[in-house]
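Sequence in, structure out.
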Amino acid sequence: MSTIDKTLTLINFENNWCAQCYTQRPIINKISHDFNSYLNVRVVNSDVHPEPAKKYNVYSAPSTILLRDGKIVEKITRFIDQSQLTTLIKYYL
C-alpha cells in the first residue's frame, strides 16, 4: 500500500480575542480529524506569530487558506461553517 502525499494544506489564522475564531476552532479540529489522511492542517495565532499572516497577506481573523503544492487555491477571510469548508476541501482533493 502506498502512502498518500498530503499536497493540500489548510492554514487557519486566528486571534485570542476573536469570537468568530473561538467558534471556528472546533470546526477546524473536526476537519483536521476527518481529513487527517489527505490534508495538512495548521492553526496560526496571528498575534503571536505575525510572519505567516504577512506572508499570505492575511489582515483579518478568522481567515482560512487552502494551499495546493504550496500555492494558494482558496482564501476565505471570514467565518466558514463545517459544511462549506468540507465541500471546498473535497473539491480540491
